[in-house]
């Protein structure tokens, strides 16, 4: 339980939100099957758009709907843009989501994921939510649930944004906390990870939510190894190469790197950041298409006068697998952890592969 407690301590103090104009509300009464007794909370701004978009915002371990409502800026952004936010509240005593049982990992199989799916269905049926504009995002345990929902309920969501989570199925097993996964000891091929996702909704052939994953390179609570595993998983699902088609450094913050694999999947690596990653809600709304058009616009290339990187390595740890290890303007580590080598992708980006 050490890692779990550490997770709580790290996340609890981090998120700083923006006050919304109105209160968080609770949906009571009968709204759909809810076998694990998940709490249904939501925020509706004073001016809801007609046929509004919906964001399901999913809290971290030890978090609550209330904490995620007040600790993130989604409710405030709902005031500005007219969408509705649902904040599910985990029934577990430790405040974590069940992302491990076969029930929760399976379409309409039960568990916490079914309750969240039924909240979405209720919102579509009763609040006029546009079924084609339902999105999900979560932090830590909520990011794990975002991956679970992308696998088990691909029919409900148009897009997802997972912050410091693990791949779909990585926590599978008997316990709420999976130490092998959290410490980065689970490695599979893209095909295996993809098969895990496909098992979440056997026979499903419809579109799948486009997904972005974000993670700090120093994350040890849910080890950064899982970032690379997630890239394998979702590139397999979308039929993309595991080598990005575009890499943008210093996006959206200095030392963060956006790798684009295709229109439906991108991964943002936050160099020097631990589990305590700062959610970039404006970028999430752009990805969903609530603001912007949902595409990944190219960033301007750095000026050609930028000096090339030196080949000397600064003091400090070697870069992790999948991390950046070179490229014009790069000042981070140029050496890779054992078992990986620094490979040049293009002049702006080399990666430990
Ligand atoms: C970016 O990385 C460099 C090299 O590790 C570091 O010196 C700098 O402080 C980092 N910048 C930010 C904003 O984190």
From TrEMBL:
Chief place where the protein resides: secreted
Matching InterPro entries: AB_hydrolase_fold, CBD, Esterase_phb, Plant_Biomass_Hydrol_Est
An MF annotation (GO) of this entry: carboxylic ester hydrolase activity
Organism per entry: Agaricus bisporus var. burnettii (strain JB137-S8 / ATCC MYA-4627 / FGSC 10392)
Coiled coil: none
Region of interest: Disordered: 289-321
Residue ranges of domain CBM1 in the record: 317-353
Function: Esterase involved in the hydrolysis of xylan, a major structural heterogeneous polysaccharide found in plant biomass representing the second most abundant polysaccharide in the biosphere, after cellulose.
Bias-annotated ranges (Pro residues): 298-311
Enzyme Commission number(s) from the entry: 3.1.1.-
Cellular component annotations (GO), alphabetically ordered: extracellular region
UniProt keyword list: Carbohydrate metabolism, Hydrolase, Polysaccharide degradation, Secreted, Serine esterase, Signal
Signal peptide: 1-20
UniProt name for this protein: Carboxylic ester hydrolase
GO biological process, one term: xylan catabolic process
Family statement: Belongs to the carbohydrate esterase 1 (CE1) family.
Compartment(s): Secreted
């Amino acid at each position: 339980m050490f890692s779990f407690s550490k997770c709580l301590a790290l996340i609890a103090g981090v998120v700083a939100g923006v006050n919304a104009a109105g209160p968080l509300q609770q949906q009571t009464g009968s709204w759909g099957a809810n076998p694990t007794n998940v709490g249904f909370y939501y925020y509706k701004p004073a001016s809801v758009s007609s046929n509004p978009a919906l964001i399901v915002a999913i809290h971290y371990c030890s978090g609550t709907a209330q904490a995620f409502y007040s600790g993130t800026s989604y409710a405030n952004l709902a005031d500005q843009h007219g969408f509705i936010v649902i904040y599910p509240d985990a029934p577990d005593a430790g405040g974590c989501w069940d992302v491990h049982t076969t029930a929760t990992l399976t379409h309409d199989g039960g568990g916490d994921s079914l309750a969240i799916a039924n909240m979405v269905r209720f919102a579509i049926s009763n609040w006029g939510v546009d079924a084609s504009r339902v999105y999900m995002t979560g932090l830590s345990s909520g990011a794990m649930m975002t991956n679970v929902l992308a696998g088990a309920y691909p029919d409900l969501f148009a897009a997802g944004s997972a912050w410091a989570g693990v791949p779909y199925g990585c926590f599978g097993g008997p316990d709420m906390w999976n130490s092998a996964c959290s410490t980065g000891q689970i490695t599979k091929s893209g095909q295996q990870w993809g098969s895990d996702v496909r098992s979440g909704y056997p026979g499903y052939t419809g579109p799948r939510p486009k997904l972005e994953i974000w993670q700090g390179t120093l994350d040890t609570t849910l080890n950064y190894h899982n970032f690379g595993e997630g890239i394998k998983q979702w590139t397999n699902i979308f039929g993309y190469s595991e080598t990005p088609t575009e890499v943008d450094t210093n996006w959206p913050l200095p030392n963060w790197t956006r790798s684009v694999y295709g229109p439906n999947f991108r991964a943002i690596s936050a160099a020097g950041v631990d589990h305590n990653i700062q959610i970039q809600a404006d970028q999430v709304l752009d990805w969903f298409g609530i603001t912007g058009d949902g595409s990944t616009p190219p960033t301007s290339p750095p000026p050609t006068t930028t000096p090339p990187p030196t080949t000397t390595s600064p003091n400090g740890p070697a870069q992790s697998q999948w991390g950046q290890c070179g490229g014009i303007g790069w000042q981070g580590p140029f050496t890779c952890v054992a078992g990986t080598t620094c490979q040049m992708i293009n002049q702006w980006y080399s990666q430990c592969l």
